[in-house]
Amino acid sequence: MELHIPFSNITFMMASFLFILVLFKIVKRWRGNNSTVNLPPGPWTLPFIGNMHQVISSSLPHHCFKDLAEKYGPLMHLKLGEVSYIIVSSPEMAKEIMKTNDLTFCDRPNLLLSTILTYNATVIAFSTYGEYWRQLRKICVIELLSAKRVQSFRTIREEEMSNLVKSISASEGSVINLTQKILGRTYGITARIAFGKRNIHQETFKLAMEEALSLLGGVCIVDLYPSIKMLRRVSRAKTKLEKATRDLDIILQDIIDDHKSSHREERKDEDLVDVLLNIQQENYHSEHPLTDDNLKAVIQDSFTGGGETSPGAVLWGMSEMVKNPKVMEEAQDEVRRVFDGKGFVDETELHQLIYLKSVVKETMRLHPTLPLLVPRESRERCQINGYEIPAKTRVMVNAWAIGRDPRYWVEAESFKPERFVNSPIDFKGTDFEYIPFGAGRRMCPGIEFAISIVELPLAQLLYHFDWKLPNGMKNEELDMTESFGITVGRKYDLSLIPITRHTN
Ligand code: HEM
């Protein structure tokens, strides 16, 4: 007997067979990856998407990771797409990653969008661990971000901050958008320090940088399926970012050329581009001479470092003080007591503001602007706590969850700056329950710079003004929702009414 199967049925059967075959391969690969290795515990994964459904369902990844870690533990394995992630959520495990096994975990993953924006991942923050990174990091630590260099830019910070006070005073009694004012001034400081005063591109650069950074927030699907090369070609974010990057490059090259052609003696103050050009000249005949693109990458580091994170800390600090009027009062009393003799705030007496420094620390505990730090990647296979971590595993350290760990922090969710007064706990990367700047080899090299542009504006805002919420809103009603992006700031701009304090 002959069996007749219509042509459409044959196509259907072949398609079904192929589908089952592909599914079988995916499940086999997924099982193979998971079953032979004793990975840290984690939620059950679905083929192809892994745990993406769990992460995507939450608006903020650091919140979702904290909830999952409560169930699966402080060393948790997640599969996002086809990539393995380890999520670290306790001080003990953070120490394992960033101290005990720092050398294994000091690489950064090669992510599509950050690679495009950062001259093929040649900025310090995203470059592969190796000789190039070491050379740039050394320049950064010794030349660009040293305490001495940061101190040399004091006048710029003081001038910009006194302009901030003037512009706020001009709107006394009416609602101001403090978010925009702080962002603008911090950007102004960073631009003057990096490029010098004469720069005509400041505003264009700012807009192009904002556009580029807005595209970097979140996880790019391409980075979760590195084996599917076609995704790289069709990514819309990639096309947009390439355009923004070209615009930024033209401006940066123009700034460098301008510095090269103008006479150094004509300019009174040395800016970061001058410093970098000097280093470039000195290194000209060395084994690894610095190219113009390398210089542009370092300038970008300063902008993303200075321009994105520090204003977030100022605005969270102000928000918490508005929400906690007793803290605001105590901080104001201190600043006014210290500076009343002078009648204005400068940097000379900032070291006396013990309580304000604690406010800054407490702000960074509850609101680290990089709650998951910057992702790392393991360079080789390694064992942690009896679990196996394969090479090339991406690692995220949940500094936000660690800063709220009730085993280390009494009333962990409350804003209590006094916990830091007389406490030896610091953000220098040795106290693993408090790591807003990370720790180990890849720790933030810009702490000195960052603190200088957080403490001064806060001291100014507290010294010169009392603050009220608009529309008769009560202090406790201030919205503290977080935004989602490359850094985590306030979702809604902070609008407040300044009342100028008149001193005789
Ligand atoms: C409140 C302000 C800031 C915060 C919260 C912050 C936080 C961080 C964090 C968490 C990391 C990753 C650390 C790790 O992987 O362990 C980092 C890296 C870095 N930060 Fe900052 N940062 C701030 C300001 C700055 C400033 C002002 C600069 C420079 C002007 C800067 C430059 C860098 C650089 C270059 C890296 C990459 C280091 C490397 O990979 O070797 N940061 N920062």
UniProtKB/TrEMBL annotation:
Record-listed heme binding positions: C444
Essential cofactor(s): heme
Tagged with keyword Transmembrane: yes
Keywords annotated in UniProt: Heme, Iron, Membrane, Metal-binding, Monooxygenase, Oxidoreductase, Transmembrane, Transmembrane helix
Family annotation (PROSITE patterns): CYTOCHROME_P450
InterPro entries in alphabetical order: Cyt_P450 (IPR001128), Cyt_P450_CS (IPR017972), Cyt_P450_E_grp-I (IPR002401), Cyt_P450_sf (IPR036396)
Pfam families for this protein: p450 (PF00067)
Transmembrane segments: 6-24
Keyword Zinc tagged: no
Gene3D superfamilies documented for this protein: Cytochrome P450
Molecular functions (GO terms): heme binding; iron ion binding; monooxygenase activity; oxidoreductase activity, acting on paired donors, with incorporation or reduction of molecular oxygen
Family: Belongs to the cytochrome P450 family.
Classification via PANTHER family: CYTOCHROME P450 71D11-LIKE, CYTOCHROME P450 FAMILY 71 PROTEIN
Protein name: Cytochrome P450
Protein's organism: Trifolium subterraneum (Subterranean clover)
